[in-house]
Design a protein that fits this description.
The complex is a heterotrimer of chains A (157), B (581) and C (315). By secondary structure, chain A is an all-alpha fold. Helix content of chain A is 64%, strand content 0%. The longest helix of chain A is centred in the middle third of the chain and has 30 residues, at 76-105. With 581 residues, chain B is of the alpha/beta class. Chain B has 3 domains: 3-233 and 352-418, 3-Layer(bba) Sandwich (FAD/NAD(P)-binding domain), CATH 3.50.50.60; 237-348, Succinate dehydrogenase/fumarate reductase flavoprotein, catalytic domain (Flavocytochrome C3, Chain A, domain 1), CATH 3.90.700; 428-547, Up-down Bundle (Methane Monooxygenase Hydroxylase, Chain G, domain 1), CATH 1.20.58. Chain B is 35% helix and 20% strand. Chain B has helices at 16-29, 67-77, 84-104, 136-148, 216-223, 251-254, 268-271, 281-293, 317-323, 325-335, 397-418, 428-443, 452-466, 473-490, 504-528, 546-549; strands spanning 3-12, 35-39, 55-56, 118-119, 129-130, 154-158, 160-168, 171-179, 184-195, 228-229, 234-241, 258-260, 298-299, 306-311, 344-353, 356-358, 364-366, 372-378, 383-384, 470-471, 537-538, 551-556, 563-568. Chain C has 3 domains: 11-112, Roll (Ubiquitin-like (UB roll)), CATH 3.10.20.30; 115-247, Alpha-helical ferredoxin (Fumarate Reductase Iron-sulfur Protein, Chain B, domain 2); 280-314. Helices cover 35% and strands 13% of the residues of chain C. Chain C has helices spanning 43-53, 115-123, 133-137, 147-153, 164-168, 180-192, 199-206, 220-224, 231-246, 281-294, 299-314, and strands spanning 11-22, 27-38, 73-76, 79-82, 95-99, 106-108, 111-112. In chain C, strands 2-1-5-3-4 form a 5-stranded mixed beta sheet. A two-stranded antiparallel sheet of chain C has the order 6-7. In chain C, helix 2 packs parallel to helix 6, helix 6 (180-192) packs antiparallel against helix 7 and helix 10 (281-294) runs antiparallel to helix 11. The longest helix of chain C has 16 residues, at 231-246. Chain C is flat, with a radius of gyration of 27 Å. The termini of chain C are far apart. The chains are: A mainly alpha (157), B alpha/beta (581), C alpha+beta (315). Chains in contact: A-B, A-C, B-C. At the B-C interface, helix 2, helix 3, helix 4, helix 10 and helix 13 of B face helix 1, helix 2, helix 3, helix 4 and helix 10 of C.
Chain lengths: 157, 581, 315
C-alpha cells in the first residue's frame, strides 16, 4: 500500500529575466524580440522621466531656479542621461509607428496562406521585418549624430 | 485501501475512437451520463494524430460511387476474411461521420466548387478517400478534441496508466489504473467501459507506430480472459521512410507517386498490372520484399536496411505542398531528402493491427463462446469486429474509429442510462491483488541484470526478422522459443527507478510485459494458420485455403500460453473468389 | 569511430546536460551524459538511448517521434524545440543543454504541467458555433467552403499543441493569466472560418487585458513554432479585426451555407458485383435494419441501401 503523497512541482515561469537575459532563453531569427525588449525598456525610462519633465518645466516660472537648473544640466553626467533619453524617445517613437501599423492595422505581416515546408513564419519574413531594420538603422544614425552634436560642446568628440 | 473513482461510462484511450465515443455520449446524453476519459498520454498526443492519408466514405453516389462498391472493395481487400455485416455497417454509417466532422470544424480539402474533395487509395475502384492534405488524423483529432471542449460533463484523466480490467462472473466491474502524477493505484467503477486503446505496433522495431503504442489494452484484455481475434494478421505498409520507419502516406501513390527499383523499373507492373502502385497494401509490400530479395533494392549503409524508391518528383512542388505537406516535411527533416528533388527511400513497415479484441458488430466485447461480457465495449484498432479481415484497405482505419466510436458511444451511453446503479464492487482480493502485483511484485523488487529495454530490443529484433511480411514454420518456431525465453527472463526484471511520481521506468516495464504477451499471441496464431491470406504470407503454404482456413483465430489466455479456437466468418453477400488486381 | 564517404567521422560523442528535478525531494540539478551520435540521430533518440542504457530514471514525454503529437517539447540549447525533430549533430555544439519548457510548471525532470495551457485553449471555444444547433448537429451535406477560404486558415490548423510558442512568449513569462499565443492563434482560426458564427462569443473572451491586447509582437511564438503556424500573425490580424469592429466596421464575413443535396438520380446500384451467397436473408435483414437506423441521419444512404435491396430481391 503506497502512502499518499501530495505531488510537488516547480514553478518555472521565466519572469522578467526571460525577457532581457539572452542566456536564459534564446529564440533564433527573432530580432522582433530585441525590439520588444528595447521598446519596453525605453518605455519604462520615458514613463519615469515624464514626472521629472513636468517638474522641470514648472521651474521656468521662477527664473532663478531655472538658471540653477540649467547650470546643473551642464554636468556631463546629466548630458549623458539626456543623450540616453534622446535615444529612447527616437527608438520608442519610430518603433511605435511600426507597432501601430502591425498591431493596430495588421499591416506588414503578410497574408495567412498555407505554409510551405520547411516552415517559415510569414509574419517574420514580411514587410514589418524590413521596417524593423529601418527603425534600427534610422535610430542608431539619429542617436549617434545627436550624440556627436551634443558632446561636441564638451570636446568629447 | 485503493481509492475509488466513479463514473457512468469510462473510456480507455483518447485516440480517434475514444474521443469520438466521448463526443457521442456528450451530444446524446450530456446532462445524464457522466464520462471519464483515461489515457496514458495527454489528450491529443495519441498516435491517431499521425494518421496521414484520409478516411473512406461514399459521398458522391451521383458521380459513380456506391455504398455497395465500397463494401465490395473492402471485402475483396480483406481477402474475404472480413465479417460482411460489419463491412456493411462501416460503409453505411461513414458518410454521415464525414459531414458531422465537417460541421464541427474540420478542414477537409475541397474541390473548386467548395465541396469535399476525394482521392484514390489502394484497392479502391472509385476515388473515395476524403482527406485533409496529408494530416487527416491530426485534423480529425483536433476537431473531436475541440468539439469535446463544448461539453462539461466529463473528466479527463491524462497520464493514467490502466493496468487491468476487473471482470467477475463474466461481467465488467471496473478497471485499475496508476495515476502517474502521484504513482498510486486507483479503482475506476462505472456502468460501462469502452476500450479504445489502439493496436500493438511496437512489437516490431521497424514500425510506423509511435513509442507509446504498446498494445496495453489488448494485453490486459488477454490477461483478463478475453479472446484476441486474428492477431496474426498484421499490416505492413509499403512505404516507411528509411531509417526511422516514419510513414509516407498511401495518398502519395494515390496522387500519382510511383515505386522504382535499383534498375529504375516501375516493378509493380509485374505484380498488379491494372492497379500498379494502388494495389492493396499486402500485395505491394510483398512485391517490394520480392524485389529486394532478388537483389534489385538499394542498401542503406548507416542502418543496414534495404530499400526501394518512391518517386514523387513529377508531381511538382506546388502539388506536394498542397496535398502532401507532411510527407515533404518528414522527408526533409528525417531522411534529409526533398521529395520535390529526389525520390524518397522507403521499405515496407509494420503499420496496423488487423486483429484485436473479439467483438460483435455493435462493438460489444465477447468471450470465446460468443457471450457478451456485460458492460464492455471496444472501438477502433483495438477491436476485431472484424471489418478488415486479413488485410485492411487504406483509409478504412480512421473510418472504423469514427463509426465504432459513435456506435459504442451511443450503446454504452444508453446502457448506462438504463442501468440503475453501478455494478457490484469488485472483490477486494482482486484489486488488492493487483496492487500487490504492481508495487510489491514489480516496483519494490530488487532489480537485477535484465532490463526491460534490453528485452524490448531483442523482442523487436526477433519480430522484425521472423514475423515480418514473409513467414515460415522454421522462423516462427524460432521466434516463439525466443519470445518464451524473453518472457522467462522478464521475470527477473524490475524498474531501477523506485520513486512514485512520473516513474516512466516503471511504465516501460509494464509496457514491455504487454508487448511480450501480444507478440506471443501473434506468433502462435501465425504458426497455426497454415495458409497465405491477405497480410499473412507463409512461404511454406503460399496458397489461400478456403476449405480449412476461412475462419477467425481466437487466442485465449492460459498459463502455458495462448489456447487457440476458431470462429466462423460471417458471409452475408459475397462468396470468396480469387483476388486479382 | 568509422569514417563515411565524405571523409568526415560518421559518429561523434556529444555531451548532453540535462536539467533535472526530483519532486519527492525537491532537489534540482544538472546531470551530464555522453552519447554517440551519427547523422540522423535526433535529440529524442539520444535521450531514449540514455534512458535505456545509462539512466532509467530520466523522465520525459515522447510518443510519435515524427513531429505530429507535440509531446516532446523541451528547451534545447536555450531554444524551445521538439526533441524528435531536432538533429543532434545539426545543433553544432559539443555540449547540448536540455531543460524543461519554461512557463510551464515542472513536475519532474523534463515533464511539465500543461493544465493551464489546455484550459486557455478550451476558453476560446475551439469548435464551430452556428446559430442553429440543429443544423450543426444533423448534417445531411457539408457546408460550402471554397479552397481559397480554406487556405486562409489551414496554416492555423497545423497546430499540434506542443506548447513551444507558449514557452517562448515573453508575455506569458510575466503574465500568468495571458491567454498565450496558442489559444489566441486558434481564436483567429475559428473567427475567420467561413462556416463559423461565433465571432461575438469569442471576441468576448479575447477582448481582455489578458487577452489579445497583452501581446506586443515579440514574434517569438512564430519563430519557435515547429509547424509554421505563425500565431504572431494571427494575433495581430485578430486584433486589427477587433479594432475595425470597434471602429464601426460591418461584419466582414457572411457564413457559408450547406451544400445543396444532389438531385441527380442515384447510380448506386449495379456497379458492385451482385451478391453470390445462396441465402440472402441475413443480408436483407441487416440492410433493412441499417437503412431504418440511418433514415433520420442521412436519407441518401438509407435510400441507397433500399435501392440495392430492391435489385437483389427482384432478381
Amino acid at each position: 500500500m503506497g502512502e499518499k503523497r501530495k505531488p510537488r512541482f516547480l514553478e518555472n515561469r521565466l519572469g522578467i529575466m526571460g525577457n532581457i537575459v539572452p542566456w536564459v532563453l534564446m529564440i533564433r531569427d527573432n530580432p522582433e524580440r530585441v525590439a520588444f525588449v528595447l521598446h519596453r525598456l525605453t518605455g519604462l525610462l520615458l514613463i519615469i522621466y515624464l514626472p521629472v519633465h513636468i517638474f522641470v518645466t514648472s521651474m521656468t516660472v521662477n527664473p532663478q531656479k531655472w538658471e540653477d537648473f540649467l547650470r546643473l544640466e551642464e554636468n556631463p553626467l546629466a548630458q549623458f542621461f539626456l543623450w540616453i533619453l534622446f535615444g529612447s524617445i527616437v527608438f520608442h517613437g519610430l518603433n511605435g509607428i511600426r507597432l501601430l501599423l502591425v498591431e493596430g492595422l495588421g499591416k506588414g505581416i503578410g497574408k495567412p496562406e498555407p505554409p510551405e515546408p520547411p516552415y517559415k513564419p510569414t509574419s517574420l519574413s514580411s514587410a514589418q521585418r524590413k521596417w524593423l531594420y529601418a527603425v534600427f538603422a534610422i535610430w542608431l544614425i539619429v542617436w549617434i549624430v545627436g550624440g556627436i552634436i551634443l558632446f561636441r560642446e564638451f570636446g568629447w568628440v | 485501501m485503493v481509492e475509488t473513482i466513479n463514473h457512468d461510462v469510462v473510456i480507455i484511450g483518447s485516440g480517434l475512437a475514444g474521443l469520438r465515443a466521448a463526443v457521442e455520449i456528450m451530444r446524446m446524453f450530456e446532462e445524464k451520463v457522466n464520462v471519464g476519459i483515461i489515457s496514458k498520454v495527454q489528450l491529443m498526443r495519441s498516435h491517431s494524430v499521425s494518421a496521414e492519408g484520409g478516411t473512406a466514405a461514399v459521398l458522391y453516389p451521383d458521380e459513380g460511387d456506391s455504398i455497395a462498391l465500397h463494401a465490395w472493395d473492402t471485402v475483396k481487400g480483406s481477402d474475404f476474411l472480413a465479417d460482411q455485416d460489419a463491412v456493411w455497417t462501416l460503409v453505411s454509417h461513414m458518410p454521415q461521420e464525414i459531414y458531422l466532422l465537417e460541421h464541427w470544424g474540420i478542414l477537409w480539402s475541397r474541390r473548386e466548387d467548395g465541396r469535399i474533395a476525394q482521392r484514390y487509395f489502394g484497392g479502391q475502384t472509385f476515388p473515395r478517400t476524403v482527406y485533409a492534405g496529408d494530416k487527416t488524423g491530426l485534423f480529425e483529432m483536433q476537431t473531436l478534441y475541440g468539439k469535446l471542449q463544448e461539453y462539461d460533463n466529463y473528466e479527463r484523466y491524462d497520464e493514467w496508466f490502466v493496468t487491468s480490467y476487473v471482470i467477475e462472473d463474466g461481467e465488467y466491474r471496473g478497471v485499475t489504473a496508476i495515476n502517474m502524477k502521484d504513482g498510486n493505484l486507483y479503482l475506476f467503477r462505472s456502468k460501462a467501459v469502452i476500450i479504445a486503446t489502439g493496436g500493438g505496433g511496437r512489437v516490431y522495431g521497424f514500425s510506423t507506430y509511435g513509442h507509446t503504442v504498446t498494445g496495453d489494452g489488448l494485453a490486459m484484455a488477454y490477461r483478463a480472459g478475453i479472446p484476441l481475434k486474428d492477431m496474426e494478421f498484421y499490416q505492413f505498409h509499403p512505404t516507411g521512410i528509411i531509417p526511422s520507419g516514419i510513414l509516407v502516406t498511401e495518398g502519395a501513390r494515390g496522387e500519382g507517386g510511383i515505386l522504382l527499383n535499383k534498375n529504375g523499373e516501375r516493378f509493380m507492373k509485374k505484380y498488379a498490372p491494372t492497379k500498379m502502385e494502388l494495389a492493396p497494401r499486402d500485395i505491394v509490400s510483398r512485391a517490394m520484399f520480392t524485389e529486394m530479395k532478388e537483389g534489385r533494392g538499394f542498401k542503406d549503409e548507416e542502418s543496414g536496411l534495404e530499400y526501394l524508391l518512391l518517386d514523387l518528383r513529377h508531381l511538382g512542388e506546388e502539388k506536394l505542398n498542397e496535398r502532401l505537406p507532411l510527407v515533404r516535411e518528414v522527408a526533409i527533416k528525417f531522411a534529409g531528402v526533398d521529395p520535390a528533388e529526389e525520390p524518397i527511400p522507403v521499405r515496407p513497415v509494420a503499420h496496423y493491427t488487423m486483429g484485436g479484441i473479439h467483438a460483435d458488430i455493435r462493438g460489444r466485447v465477447l468471450d470465446a463462446q460468443g457471450r457478451w461480457i456485460k458492460g464492455m465495449w471496444v472501438a477502433g484498432e483495438a477491436a476485431a469486429y472484424s471489418v478488415h479481415g486479413a488485410n485492411r484497405l487504406g483509409s478504412n482505419s480512421t473510418a472504423e474509429c469514427l463509426v465504432w466510436g459513435k456506435i459504442t458511444g451511443r450503446e454504452a451511453g444508453l446502457y448506462a442510462l438504463k442501468s440503475p446503479s453501478l455494478p457490484p464492487m469488485p472483490s477486494n482480493e482482486k484489486v488488492a491483488g493487483e496492487e500487490k502485483r504492481l508495487f510489491d511484485g514489480l516496483l519494490k523488487r530488487e532489480s537485477g541484470k535484465e532490463t526491460a529495454y534490453q528485452i524490448k530490443k531483442e523482442l523487436n529484433h526477433v519480430m522484425d526478422t521472423h514475423v515480418y511480411v514473409y513467414r515460415n514454420e522454421e522462423g516462427l518456431r524460432k521466434a516463439l522459443s525466443k519470445i518464451r525465453e524473453l518472457k522467462e527472463r522478464f521475470k527477473n526484471v524490475a524498474p531501477s527507478d523506485k520513486s512514485r511520481i512520473y516513474n516512466t521506468d516503471f511504465i516501460t516495464v509494464l509496457e514491455t510485459e504487454n508487448l511480450l504477451d501480444i507478440a506471443e499471441v501473434i506468433v502462435v496464431g501465425a504458426l497455426e494458420r497454415r495458409e497465405s491470406r491477405g497480410s499473412h504470407a507463409r512461404t511454406d503454404y503460399p496458397k489461400r485455403d478456403d476449405e480449412n482456413w476461412l475462419k477467425h483465430t481466437l487466442a485465449t489466455y492460459s498459463r502455458d500460453g495462448p489456447v487457440l479456437s476458431y470462429w466462423p466468418v460471417t458471409i452475408t453477400t459475397w462468396k470468396p473468389v480469387e483476388r486479382k488486381y | 569511430m568509422g569514417i563515411n564517404a565524405n571523409g568526415r567521422p560518421a559518429t561523434r560523442v556529444v555531451k548532453i546536460r540535462v536539467r533535472r528535478y526530483d519532486p519527492e525531494t525537491g532537489r534540482r540539478w544538472w546531470q551530464e551524459y555522453r552519447v554517440e551520435a551519427k547523422k540522423g540521430t535526433t535529440v529524442l533518440d539520444a535521450l531514449l538511448k540514455i534512458k535505456a542504457e545509462q539512466d532509467h530514471t530520466l523522465a520525459m514525454r515522447y510518443s510519435c517521434r515524427m513531429g505530429a503529437c507535440g509531446s516532446c517539447g523541451m528547451l534545447i540549447n536555450k531554444m524551445p524545440r521538439l526533441a524528435c525533430e531536432t538533429q543532434l549533430l545539426e545543433l553544432g555544439t559539443d555540449t547540448v543543454t536540455i531543460e524543461p519548457l519554461p512557463n510551464f510548471p515542472v513536475l519532474r525532470d523534463l515533464i511539465t504541467d500543461f493544465g493551464d495551457f489546455f484550459k486557455k485553449h478550451r476558453d476560446i471555444m475551439p469548435y464551430i458555433v452556428r446559430e442553429s444547433k440543429k443544423e450543426n448537429e444533423e448534417p445531411y451535406r457539408e457546408y460550402y467552403m471554397p479552397p481559397d477560404e480554406l487556405n486562409k486558415i489551414i496554416r492555423y490548423s497545423y497546430c499540434i499543441m506542443c506548447g513551444l510558442c507558449y514557452a517562448a512568449c515573453p508575455v506569458v513569462a510575466i503574465d500568468k493569466k495571458f491567454l498565450g499565443p496558442q489559444a489566441l492563434g486558434q481564436a483567429y482560426r475559428w473567427v475567420t472560418d467561413v462556416r463559423d458564427e461565433g465571432l461575438r462569443l469569442r471576441l468576448e473572451k479575447v477582448d481582455d487585458k489578458h487577452g489579445v491586447w497583452r501581446c506586443h509582437f515579440a514574434g517569438s511564438c512564430s519563430a519557435a513554432c515547429p509547424k509554421g503556424v505563425d500565431p504572431a500573425q494571427g494575433i495581430q490580424l485578430l486584433r486589427s479585426k477587433l479594432v475595425a469592429l470597434t471602429a464601426g466596421a460591418r461584419r466582414d464575413k457572411k457564413p457559408t451555407h450547406v451544400a445543396t443535396p444532389t438531385t441527380v438520380r442515384y447510380v448506386d446500384v449495379g456497379d458492385a458485383p451482385k451478391p453470390t451467397v445462396e441465402d440472402k436473408s441475413l443480408l436483407v435483414k441487416h440492410l433493412e435494419e441499417t437503412a431504418q437506423e440511418l433514415e433520420q441521419d442521412l436519407p441518401y444512404v438509407a435510400q441507397a441501401l433500399r435501392d440495392y435491396l430492391r435489385t437483389i430481391t427482384s432478381s
